Amino acid sequence: MANINFVPDDYVQSNESRRTNLVCFVLLALVMAALGGSFVTIKIRQRACLARENIINTRMARIKESIKQFEELQTRRKAMMKTALTTAELLEPVPRSVLLASLTNALPPGVSLLKLTLIQKEPKRNSRPAQTTKYKAVQGRITDPAQSTLTREKSLETHIEIGGMAPSDLQVAAYIEELSGSSLFDNVALVESKEHVIDQTTFRRFKLTAMLRQDVHLTQADIEAIRSRAQSSVYRF
After folding, report:
1. Would you list the domain boundaries of the chain?
2. What fold is seen in the domain 87-123+152-233?
3. Reduced to 3 states, what is the DSSP secondary structure of residue 8?
4. Which DSSP string do the residues of 149-214 spell out, in sequence order?
5. What tens digit of pLDDT does each residue of 107-117 get?
């Protein structure tokens, strides 16, 4: 006996069409979900890369600033050396190039000079005038003016002001001890020592005062030894 299908063909086609549309909708939803997940993942990676790039740029800026400050210190050091060499021929018991070399040789590791000032002053005299005889008064009037100028220049006191940077007060104390033990300097004293931060690193910015001994007499061998030692210690930190 033949099977008779009482379901209309339109109903069958409509069911098949609904099934096909449902499958297509599910596939479309899966594709859109995959695309959305990929987009979110890409955005997260982009933000991570941007954050890492900003960190690297910040580090590079700090490194550039540190290099710039180092170059400025080197420029100041060279300028100080040049100034000392140009004034080395002045009338003084110790050439200024040798004086600067001695200050450089005494630097502990990690300490650098930033400022050096030399001031020549007349020594303080007593307010009460010294008694003189007639012979001394006449001898003083006939003294050669050039000789009196030379004597005055030799009697000047050389005051030294030193400014620099150190990792800690221990290096500052070691520098003061080294200068105090030198045969060139006298009355070495600490004026101030302040905290100074460079690129998140703490340093001590210090200022010293000293005087050049008036009774110093250096031989040529002593001068050459000081200068040769300075050539190897001028860039020591």
Report:
1. 9-79, 87-123+152-233
2. Alpha-Beta Plaits (3.30.70)
3. coil
4. HHHHHHH-EEEEEEEEEESSHHHHHHHHHHHHTSSSEEEEEEEEEEEEEETTEEEEEEEEEEEE-T
5. 888 888 888 88
